Amino acid sequence: MLNQIQGLHIEPTNMCTLKCPDCGRTEFLKMFPKKWTNKNLNLNHLKEFLDIDLKGLTINICGTYGDAIYYDQLFDMVKFFKDNGSKISLATNGSYKSKEWWQNLASLLDNNDEVILAIDGLPDTFTTYRINADWSSIETAINVLKQSPTQLVWQYILFSFNEHQVNEAQELSKKLGFDKFFVRHSERWDSDRTNVPSTVNQLTEKRIEWNPKSTVEIDPLCKRTHSEHYISADGYYMPCCFVHDYRFYYKSSFFKNKNNFDISKTTLSAVLTQSKDFYNTLEDAKINYCTFNCPGL
Q1: How confident is the model at residue 50 (pLDDT cuts 50, 70, 90)?
Q2: Which among 127, 149, 137, 37 has a CA at the least distance from the CA of 82?
Q3: CATH number belonging to domain 2-155+221-279
Q4: For residue 140, how many other CB atoms are within 10 A of its CB?
Q5: How far is CA 62 from its chain centroid?
Q6: Which residues pair with 252 in a beta bridge?
Q7: Where are the strands (E) in 215-296, listed by range?
Q8: How far apart are CA 38 and CA 58, in angstroms?
Q9: Are 87 and 113 in contact (CB under 8 A)?
Q10: Please, is 226 exposed, middle or buried when counting C-beta atoms within 10 Å of its C-beta (0-12, 13-18, 19+)?
């Protein structure tokens, strides 16, 4: 497994300024407000945990609960990975940071890296989902990053309110100076959600079958790409970020045996050695987070 690793997924913080409906953070705060605590990843623990050659790996700095740009050691983290020969893929909404902040970040990145801005609609509609986002400060980020070597990417999640605006948004992305524009489906159409697009595909429809007796075959992304190894903001390893979804995590073996996956107490090579059985039996285990997120077609 160690020699197959292509990348890592790091969530450095669970803090965010947005209140997106259906986001795991928003829903958790709504249901269990007294259980929530803000977390920031201990960078020294992360460095010691990663006892592997990082050269050439893609480091996906992306939140499942938070937005990475609000991590107070983000520049130090990026510098650490760049000094070790890694490629950076940073996903963010991009709101509420200054021109100087973006210039500092851009100075650490090169043409092997990318910054993905999550903008689901046009400037006057994207806050239908990205509640509390700020177009003015996002535009500040765009104006800095388009002049830097790093690749600037617009990510556009389809909703009922924006699916008719894709072409217009793509044209705007070109005008603003983005290098890439891509459309994706949400991962959260499993129940009574809002703004469901008419283009929901077969994959998302299958996600309704995530119960323990599911007959759905899985196509595990973790084994297909070898780049999903996830470290949470509170310092725990999981094979992918889907495991950390609060609907699954607290009944999973990764929570029940969380001390074995505490990055302050172990290393990545040790974790992967003890996780061989997990990967070897993955397709037959029918684990709920796997059948929900990685159903085979």
Answers
A1: very high
A2: 149
A3: 3.20.20.70
A4: 20
A5: 4
A6: none
A7: 229-231, 237-238
A8: 26
A9: yes
A10: middle
Sequence ranges of the domains in the chain = 2-155+221-279
Q: Minimal CA–CA distance to 131: which of 16, 4, 265, 20?
A: 20
User: Residue holding tokens 């005008």?
Assistant: 175
DSSP, collapsed to helix, strand or coil, labels residue 9 as: strand
pLDDT, tens digit, 9 for 90 and up, residues 201-259: 544 444 444 455 567 788 899 988 899 999 999 999 999 999 999 989 999 999 999 99
Angstrom distance (rounded) from CA 116 to CA 122? 16
**SS3 at position 15:** coil
114-118 sheet: strands from edge to edge = 180-184, 151-157, 114-118, 87-92, 58-61, 7-10, 229-231, 237-238
Residues 6+ apart with CB under 8 A from 203: 185, 295, 297
DSSP 40-74: B--HHHHHHH--S--TT-EEEE--SSS-GGG-TTH
Report strand pairing: 237-238 vs 229-231.
antiparallel
Least-confidence region, from 28-32, 112-116, 188-192:
188-192
